[in-house]
Amino acid sequence: MVRVLPMTMTSSLHLASVAAVRSVSNGRLFSAPNLPRPPLISLRTISQQEGFLGPRGSRFVRNFSSVEAGAAGNMAQASIALKQDEALEWVKKDNRRMLHVVYRVGDLDKTIKFYTECLGMKLLRKRDIPEERYTNAFLGYGPEDSHFVVELTYNYGVHQYDIGTGFGHFGIAVEDVAKTVDLIKAKGGKVTREPGPVKGGETVIAFVEDPDGYKFELLERGPTPEPLCQVMLRVGDLDRSITFYEKAFGMELLRKKDNPENKYTVVMMGYGPEDKSTVLELTYNYGVKEYNKGNGYAQIAIGTDDVYKTAEAIKICGGQVTREPGPLPGINTKITACVDPDGWKTVSLNVIIINFYLVCVAYTETFWL
Q: Which residues form the VOC domain (predicted)?
């Protein structure tokens, strides 16, 4: 049984140049705005006229030009570095939260029934868009403005999807794993791992599959405000992924565990402790650099205060922005979308808490089927 505790809501550097001369007598730097200005002469042009300066003079001008170019390059690099530092520092202060995860299913009613009757979720809302030939539904353990939820999308006539090898599972915290498994079996659900302690630990877990084959890990825990507690994805370079999610998305590395006997390492990353918020679980299997993403799992949505700064930070950290930041047609909400170094998609939304789930409907239905 899932017991839910109430959750509380929670230019670049511009350098201005002035005409200045240095006093030979005392080294003061002063402006001379009223002095007559001689015509501008290009040193590079003079350097080409060797007869004007002579070989030694021309060589001096060429050397000076190289130094000048190097100084300009260093200044530009310093400006870029400052801009990057400012963007990454802003990420740490941004107000972020994991909002929902999107994936596709072949029989929406059957999946809703499984989630509500076997996993204890609530159907929060459902909307059919016949002109676009799809229906979506949001389910979870509490209101969308304070809980992480799933968004299921059914595209008319598509009854099967390839989940691929990269997506791992969703995690759900329950108070009694064995009792939950018995209920799932009684409802005709598929159990792929019987209840028992996790290898090398004491936490009791089990694995089940929904009607489309998406795996759910049941974790035995006490009451929590966020039962839908994990999204697990596999990555090809764990250190690269950790750095990306820390810097580009401002997540915290909560835990890292290496399992050399079974040749894999897992990390937990998120915006709060594992027992009170949803976390992203990244798994690296030794020697496996790429995975098949399939076409079932879609993306995670994350709330942000500024999609423009978010997109800038993503680019700085090596992510690919697949939708440039900007407003959605006809509404005030702004979004940006990207893929991480492994190709996993994330969408960031700049929203007002009061209306963002109404806004998210428009966004998900219009752009990401």
A: 97-221, 227-351
323, β-bridge pairs: 337
Answer whether 219's CB lies under 8 Å from 225's CB.
no
217 labeled part of a ligand binding site: yes
Dump pLDDT digits (tens) for 18-60.
232 223 233 333 333 443 444 443 434 434 444 444 555 555 4
- Is 226 one of the annotated binding-site residues? no
Strand-pair category, 204-209 with 345-350: unpaired
C-alpha triplet 227, 229, 234: angle, nearest 5°: 155
What pLDDT score does 254 carry? 98
CA atoms within 13 A on the CB side of 293: 13
Q: Specify burial of residue 246 (Cβ count, 10 A radius: 0-12, 13-18, 19+).
A: middle
Strands 215-220 and 204-209, how do they pair?
Answer: antiparallel
Q: How many CB atoms lie within 10 A of CB 92?
A: 11
Query: Is 281 marked active-site?
Result: no
Do the beta carbons of residue 43 and residue 57 sit within 8 Å?
no
CA distance 323 to 222: 40
pLDDT digits (tens, 9 = 90+) for 246-271: 999 999 999 999 999 999 999 999 99
The radius of gyration of the chain's CA atoms, rounded to the nearest angstrom, is 28
* In contact, 348 and 322? CB cutoff 8 Å: no
pLDDT tens-digit map of 143-166: 999 999 999 999 999 999 999 999
Instruction: Count Cβ neighbours within 10 Å for each residue of 110-127 and write b for 16 or more, e otherwise.
Output: ebbebbeebbbbeebeee
pLDDT of residue 318: 86
- CA–CA separation, 221 vs 177, rounded Å? 9
- Range list of β-strands (E), the chain: 20-22, 29-31, 97-104, 122-129, 134-140, 149-155, 167-174, 190-197, 204-209, 215-220, 228-234, 252-259, 264-270, 279-285, 297-304, 320-327, 334-339, 345-350
Catalytic residue among 131, 132, 144, 217: 217
Yes or no: say if 239 and 227 are a contact pair by the CB < 8 Å rule.
no
Q: Is 151 annotated as a binding residue?
A: yes
